[in-house]
Specification:
The complex is a heterodimer.
Chain A lengths: L1 H10 L1 H20 L1 E3 L5 E3 L2 H12 L13 H30 L1 H17 L5 E5 L3 H12 L3 E6 L2 H9 L8 E3 L5 H6 L7 E6 L4 H14 L4 E5 L3 H9 L4 E3 L1 H14 L1 H9 L18 E5 L3 H12 L3 E6 L12 E2 L5 H6 L7 E4 L4 H14 L4 E6 L5 H5 L5 E4 H14 L1 H10 L4 H14 L6 E6 L6 H8 L6 H4 L12 E8 L2 E4 L12 E6 L1 H12 L1 H9 L7 H10 L1
Parallel strand pairs in A: 3-4, 3-6, 4-5, 6-7, 7-8, 9-10, 9-12, 10-11, 12-13, 13-14
Antiparallel strand pairs in A: 1-2, 15-18, 16-17, 16-18
Chain B lengths: L2 H21 L11 H17 L6 H30 L6 H33 L1
The chains are: A alpha/beta, B mainly alpha.
Chain lengths: ~575, ~130
């Protein structure tokens, strides 16, 4: 703020000097020019009246000639100085307006505003660098959960979009280069309530730079990065970046899973949903010969996973000079029937339209479907704006980069245990996963249930932590029963129990809780609220533990004691 | 030799000399204190203040502060004058003149500090 004041003062020096001098000369002149009073005698204006007259003359207010009508000499003086003072005012105000519109000043003001807004955040928040497709999606889903974030982006129009978005929370945003440490500090990486930094810019090098900066300045802070190449990933991992997300790898791995473990795939697909979203049916990938159009980063990742899953993959790629291109690859876009026939579209079971151009991908889908209507189609969607085109039921599966990234990061930020749960679930076979999906469907038939974490600690589970310190054995089942009638169990699934010994997938109801344990539950929003009672309210928990209501007041306790 | 330095030093020293010129004389005697001199002192002080705007050094900050003090003292002196002569019918009694002159005397101290700082800075630069 200091710098802004000094900037204004320095720029205003010339106009202010001019203004002061003009006023001084005009006032002085009026006191020296002889006037005439009402009795016709020579009269000299004093400084008080002279300054008064100049003040309203300079602003062209014009209260008239006071205290006595002017002589012609005085009028001549006033005439000259009306024009001079007006011109000086125009110059002064012009300078002030120009100064206000000055980019440097506006930038300094915006920075100052941003810094103040970030400093005032009093609840846990995230720093999001990059407000493109992925960033805006992520911020939107965080906002829906009333989680705050501060946003940095290189482009002013994106920050404007953030400011204009209709959301329940105001989020500070700044147009600035996120790779500069100063801007990251402005965004709050040293703020005590900052939980983690998400680097989602389009530029790998910038993401890398953000990760390094944060890890150097505030090593405690969690950093989540988007990375598009394996070298950058390795570099990021080398200094302790907490999560590195490659959207193509992540999608390809899930796809590889879907070949032999459709229910495992369905499970991890479901957990990407927001609560209330419809539950997708199981997806059976046909086995056999697949066509893969486009051998870029996406194509390579898919190629590897499908080969590992035992499929035959025929690559179609326009650039024959590409590194590591399979020898039998067909050269072409795949948008025309000739190339597709050459690649054997008739015998193929599925096609992957994986080019980095949306119109090409749509064209591939249409042409391929015309040649072989039974094809299973997987499409890569590059631009979020093209969702409508891909929503048309031509493709069985659509992969959109920003969607994959945003959901993955949202899960990491809001429910980090979900990742642990899914990786533990992979250890089980597919019928186990099928069984679990049926149980989820049972507790929440209309859409994906709410998923939440609970930590057994004094603030988030007051009653339970009190009972545990007293030595009472509290078990998982005590949390999942209704505090109105303890024989009724809530429609809730305990998915994960993480304690000092490790993490346990689908814990039994008899598992004992300890302080600082973390649990992951799925269920309806209503049962989540019910569970809060068991966690926080000693009477509710006491009833579930013992079957009797504990007296809450001193009088009640005394009566109970004297009765027994 | 630097014209900007000349103008700057000139204004600051002139502010002090004009200020002192008005201040000197019998404290209660209106004939010893000319209104034009007070006017000139106020004007030159205002110019000196504006010239000091925007200097971010510590010395610049103290110079600006001293100038602002002088401005306030002198404007207060002029205010007392206007109040006594035009607003009320008290006129330039010895008591009024004494308070005007003593306010201007305060401004002399502030201006002396400005000039001393200027001299100190110059000496330091020479070394």
């Amino acid at each position: 703020m200091d710098s802004i004041v000094f900037l204004i003062l320095r720029q205003m020096r010339a106009p202010l000097l001019l203004l002061t001098t003009v006023y001084a000369i005009a006032t002085l002149g009026l006191t020296l020019i002889p006037g005439m009073d009402d009795k016709g005698q020579v009269w000299f204006m004093d400084f008080f009246h002279a300054f008064y007259f100049v003040s309203f003359m300079g602003t062209t207010t014009g209260f008239g000639e006071i205290p006595y009508p002017f002589t012609d000499a005085q009028r001549m003086w006033a005439l000259i100085f009306i024009y001079i003072t007006v011109a000086t005012w125009v110059y002064t105000i012009g300078t002030l307006i120009r100064l206000w519109q000055n980019e440097t000043l506006q930038k300094a003001l915006a920075e100052h505003r941003f810094q103040r807004q970030v400093r005032q955040i009093s609840e846990p928040f995230f720093v999001v660098c990059g407000y493109g497709n992925t960033g805006s999606r992520l911020v939107k889903s965080l906002r829906k959960r009333l989680i705050r974030a501060s946003v940095l982006d290189l482009k002013q129009d994106r920050i404007d979009a953030l400011m204009l978005a209709e959301h329940p929370l105001f989020l500070p945003g700044l147009q600035a280069d996120a790779s500069t440490p100063r801007n990251l500090v402005l965004a709050g990486i040293m703020h005590p309530k900052c939980k983690s930094v998400v680097a989602l810019t389009d530029d790998n090098a910038v993401n890398l730079h953000i990760a390094i900066t944060v890890k150097v300045l505030n090593p405690e802070l969690k950093v989540i990065c988007r990375a598009d190449s394996h070298e950058i990933e390795a570099n990021m991992a080398s200094f302790g970046t907490d999560a590195i997300i490659d959207p193509f790898d992540s999608f390809a791995k899930d796809l590889g899973l879907a070949v032999d473990y459709p229910y495992q795939y369905m499970l991890s697909d479901w957990f990407r949903n927001e609560s209330g979203e419809p539950l997708a049916p199981v997806m059976q990938l046909p086995k056999g010969r697949w066509l893969l159009c486009g051998f870029g980063r996406f194509g390579r990742a898919i190629h590897r996973e499908l080969l590992d899953a035992g499929m035959t993959v025929q690559v179609i790629e326009p650039n024959k000079a590409l590194l590591n291109l399979p020898v039998n690859a067909v050269i072409g876009d795949g948008t025309e029937a000739v190339t597709l026939n050459q690649a054997g579209v008739g015998e193929a079971v599925g096609i992957i339209a994986g080019a980095d151009d949306d119109s090409n991908n749509l064209s591939i889908i249409v042409t391929a479907k015309a040649l072989n209507p039974d094809l299973f189609v997987i499409a890569r969607q590059n631009q979020q704006a093209n969702s409508r085109l891909f929503a048309h039921p031509r493709a069985e599966l659509v992969m959109e980069v920003s969607d994959v990234l945003a959901t993955k990061i949202r899960t990491l930020l809001t429910n980090p245990l979900v990742d642990d749960f899914l990786s533990l679930a992979r250890a089980h076979d597919d019928s186990w996963a099928q069984n679990l999906t049926e149980r989820i469907r049972k507790i929440s038939p209309l859409g994906f249930p709410e998923v939440w974490e609970c930590v057994i600690a004094a603030d988030s589970a007051h009653a339970v932590s009190n009972a545990l310190t007293k030595g009472t054995d509290v078990r998982v089942e005590h949390l999942t029963h209704d505090h109105h009638d303890r024989d009724v169990s809530l429609p809730v699934l305990a998915l994960l129990h993480s304690n000092s010994q490790g993490a346990f997938c689908m814990p039994s109801g008899h598992a004992s809780l300890a302080l600082n344990d973390r649990l992951l539950f799925a269920g309806s929003a209503a049962s989540r609220a019910q569970m809060q009672w068991n966690l926080q309210n000693e009477v509710a928990l006491g009833y579930i533990l013992t079957g009797a209501s504990l007296p809450q007041t001193w009088l009640g306790r005394w009566l109970q004691r004297s009765n027994s | 030799m630097n014209l900007e330095k000349v103008v700057f030093a000139f204004t600051i020293i002139l502010a002090l000399t004009l200020n002192f010129g008005f201040f000197t004389g019998d404290i209660g005697n209106a004939a010893h204190h000319n209104v034009y001199e007070l006017y000139a002192a106020i004007f030159v002080n205002a110019i000196a203040t504006i010239l000091k705007f925007g200097d971010r050094t510590h010395m610049g900050a103290v110079l600006l502060a001293a100038s602002l003090v002088a401005d306030i003292q002198l404007v207060a002196a002029a205010g007392v004058w206007v109040f006594a002569v035009h607003v009320t019918d008290i006129g330039l009694t010895p008591a009024t003149v004494a308070s005007i002159v003593s306010l201007a005397g305060g401004a002399v101290i502030a201006n002396t500090i400005s000039v001393s700082l200027l001299v100190i800075e110059t000496v330091m630069l020479r070394r």
